[in-house]
Amino acid sequence: MLSKSYVSAGFLILVFSILLSACGPQREVSQNEEEQSEPEKPEELTLWAWEDTKTAFQEVGDKYTEETGIKVNVVAAENADISLDAPAGRGPDLFYETHDRIGDAYLQGLAAEIEITDEQLKGYQQSAIEAFTVEGKLLGIPSSVETIGLFYNKELVPEAPQTIEEINEIAEELTNTDEDEFGFLNITSDFYPTFPFLTAAGGYVFEKSEQGGYDTSDIGLSSDEVVEGAEMIQSWHENGYIPESLTYDVMNGLFREGKVGAIISGPWGIPDFEEGLGDKLAIAPLPTYKGKQLESFLGVKGLAVSEYSENKYWSTDFALFMTNTANSELLFENTKRLPAREDVSIESELYQGIQDQLQYADPTPNIPEMAQVWEPMGDALVFIGEGEDPQEVLKEAEATIKEQNSLLGGDN
Amino acid sequence: MAKQTHNPKVAVTLSLVPGLGQLYNRHYLKGATFLLLTISFILFFYQFLNIGYWGLLTLGEIPRLDDSRVLLAQGIISLIITGFAITFHVLNLLDAYKEAVKFQQGVRPDSLRKRFRAGWNKSFPYILIGPGLFLLIFVVIFPLLYMVSIAFTDYNLYNSPPKNLLNWVGFENFISLVTVPIWRSTFFSVFLWTVIWTLVATTLQIALALILAIFVNDPRIKFKKFIRTVLILPWAVPAFVTILIFAALFNNDFGAINNDILGPLFNQAIPWMTDPFWSKIALIGIQVWVGFPFVFAIFTGILQSISKDWYEAADMDGASSWQKFKSITFPQVMFATAPILIMQYAGNFNNFNIIYLFNQGGPAVRGQNAGGTDILISWVYNLTFETQNYNMAAAISIIIGLIIAGFAFYQFRRTRSFKEEGEM
Questions:
Q1: What ipTM does this complex have?
Q2: For this UniProt entry, which segments traverse the membrane (chain B) (predicted)?
Q3: Which residue in A91, A121, B85, B231 has a CA-CA distance of 20 to 30 Å to B277?
Q4: Which residues of B touch A406 (CB under 8 A)?
């Protein structure tokens, strides 16, 4: 038979030749990019937007083309694809993103740091800029902001309640569970709309560190102040104001039908409620607790420039163009999202309530660790609603959040 | 002529460059084709393999410029291509040797046409299998190798490409799984529940199927066809629909089970969704419901094929019903269905649908990073899509894969032993 040594020699030669040739790519590393004040204009820019904002953005893009000659392509796409598409050269120049996902994009190195002057930043809401800043780097130009407000039915509640006491009075007066009638409803199992009440007396998710980021080891969700808020929420259930298994569908449906005095909701709910309630719908900022305005979460959407874009200068330029005063107004007309600018005033009674509350809204932390907060806190709020000891439940939730976050990085 | 001087060893040595050995054997067309294929292979793939192997070893050197994920993929594809190349090279060496031996013995090559026809006939099955095999390698083997590779890297949220480069970390992920306290406690509690789930849910569904099959098969039962049809119905409804409906039925506050059955009858409500113990009970119940019709159908078929003579003989000997069941029915049914039943266990071990659709692996449990009813596979899902712990998810997947492979191995063994006995 064929002697084995020949075959193995053949293998060896093959393997060695491959190993020897495996010396990797030959390339020169040149990192010195030439700094130009105004690089040459590209022919076109690509913006990844979402299906619902595509048309509105394209309209602004067309205006930009008129002004500069740069064509703007607005594409409805999944931002999750950027991670693979951008490095492969198929990514966008800009992408539309919410501020709470920007920390993730930063960790993956997908969003480029935006270099603009303080002069250019004038006019944007400070908190919105903050929302897009990670580790001191600005990673996006904010375009719209949103927060929650107190939606009320003027027929049942003629005057907007100013304080929590007034809310409790309304709840006491109007609630009649047999008739499915309620004075005040809120989804207390959802951390987002319940956060203002939970932290009515004080509290925070992650302590802000001095560098402008967050200290994830310092969670402020089980202090005595938060327990005070939790007891207040618990009392709503104990007094029968809010049923334990309330869902958004049920709450929104009842409010639309005019059976609820007031609920907590956001601008996204306005069209639906307006349809059901018409003129009876009114929106006020959240009430005060012991003279202090409740602070809600601020959500910001904006435009990020892809790290892999070859036209960062013009991408930034377009992002600024899209969010300037005139276009912010146009975008509000078309998307009904409140502009992230101070110098734009929206003449709309309904949106005024939300706008008033915006002054008391703080961005949800934009770090990926925030993603681990929602579920444990939601669970904790359910337990609180069921009448368990708030202190204990909140301590547990805090521990869960810390544990989950310690697992994000494996063992470091 | 060259009868004595023609040396197979020379042919094989020459064949290290594919084609030369064939030329030496006077197979000119074959040799030229081999040579041409080799040259084009090297020209075509040199750069790809070069980057691929370099990428596989280093996973990239310059962050941002090198994307570790892409390099890893290219490296694995390079391995696969090399595998193909080595296979063909060995075939080439064998061919050179065999033909040289024939030549040495004085057999002169047939006409080109004849040889071509012989070659075609010989390789025809491989040509038919080829495309499927090729597809399978890139659709199944490649992702599998990729997943296995990820388990040995440090790919997680804080080390995400393209900003960062991945690194090979050896068995570190597996070690943390059993040494880092929170990983360990979660892993073992999830693993334990997975095993209990597999054993209890599957055994119950088999037991229920067996009991029902025997009852329905009893000669005293009327309307057999109707009853069988009804019992098979849960199988006809898509499992995910059944699970979602059961999830609604089991809802603590609105579900019919609490509101319309337990409430009025016993005046109490069970926290099906929020208490891990009751969630587990509910899940096992649902799985038995979803899973028994399939086993029932198989058992029914086998029961009908058991010879009546045996039972008559048993009756003559005065055997009790229990004895008949123990000595005739049960062994017959189990002997024929053991391999299928074992795959039922394997299927439940990885039954993601029911766990995820019922309540996403919930409820939450203190001190662990998986839900109270999470089994390994749904935990992997969470690690991948919720917390981007790709490395750990891949490591756990490998463990799952090994366990399932164990089931499959056992099943094949059983199947073969069954066949051999059948042939006796």
A1: 0.74
A2: 31-49, 70-91, 126-153, 190-217, 229-250, 281-306, 327-347, 390-410
A3: B231
A4: 182
Our CA-based measurement puts residue B115 at a distance from the nearest CA of chain A, in whole angstroms, of 23
CATH fit for domain A44-146+299-363, picks 3.40.50.720, 3.40.190.10, 3.90.920.10, 3.40.30.10: 3.40.190.10
**Tokens standing for residue A370:** 């925030």
**DSSP percent split of chain A into helix, strand, coil, nearest 5:** 45, 20, 35
| Class of CATH domain A149-296+366-408 | alpha beta
Amino acid at B24: Y
Judge: A87–B164 Cβ closer than 8 Å, yes or no.
no
Chain A contact for B178 (CB, 8 A cutoff):
no
Identify whether the C-beta of residue B182 lies closer than 8 Å to the C-beta of residue B369. Answer: yes
Cβ of B367 within 8 Å of Cβ of A2? The answer is: no
Domain ranges in chain B are: 8-159, 176-423
Separation of alpha carbons A192 and A171, rounded Å: 21
Q: How many CA atoms lie within 13 A of A139 on its CB side?
A: 31
Which residues from chain B sit within 8 angstroms of residue A368, using beta carbons? 157
Partners of A22 on chain B (C-beta within 8 Å) are: 49-50, 53-54, 57
* Shortest Cα distance, chain B CAs vs residue A75, angstroms: 23
pLDDT at position A298 is: 96
Q: Give the pLDDT band of residue A245 (cuts 50, 70, 90).
A: confident
Fold of B176-423: MetI-like fold (1.10.3720)
Chain segment B109-142, per-residue pLDDT in tens = 677 788 888 888 888 998 999 899 999 999 999 9
Asked if A49 and A98 touch (Cβ cutoff 8 Å), the reply is no
Residues B185-242: tens digit of each pLDDT: 889 999 999 999 999 999 999 999 999 999 998 888 899 899 999 999 999 999 999 9
pLDDT at A1: 45
A-chain CB neighbours of B161 within 8 Å are: 83, 87, 108
Average pLDDT value over all residues in chain A = 88
User: A3, A309, A411: which to substitute to probe chain B, counting the most B Cβ within 10 Å?
Assistant: A411
Domains A44-146+299-363 and A149-296+366-408 share a fold: yes
* CB within 8 Å: B364 and A84: no
Instruction: Identify the band that residue A8 occupies on the pLDDT scale cut at 50, 70 and 90.
Output: low
* pLDDT for A412: 40
CA distance A376 to B353: 23
Inter-residue contact B174 to B263 (CB < 8 Å): no
- C-beta atoms of A6 and B13 within 8 A: yes
Chain A residues in contact with B389 (beta carbon < 8 A): 407-408, 410
Single-letter amino acid code for the residue at A365? P
Spatial distance between the Cα atoms of B373 and B278, rounded to a whole number of angstroms: 10
Q: Identify the pLDDT of residue B66.
A: 86
d(CA B71, CA B147): 14
Residue for token pair 């440090």: B154
User: How many CB pairs below 8 Å do chains A and B form together?
Assistant: 128
Cα of B278 to nearest chain A Cα, Å: 17
| Cβ B187 vs Cβ B178: under 8 Å | yes
- Given a cut of 70, whether residue A341 has pLDDT beyond it is yes
With beta carbons under 8 A apart, name residues in chain A contacting B69. Answer: 84
Contact yes or no for A382 and B183 at CB 8 A? no
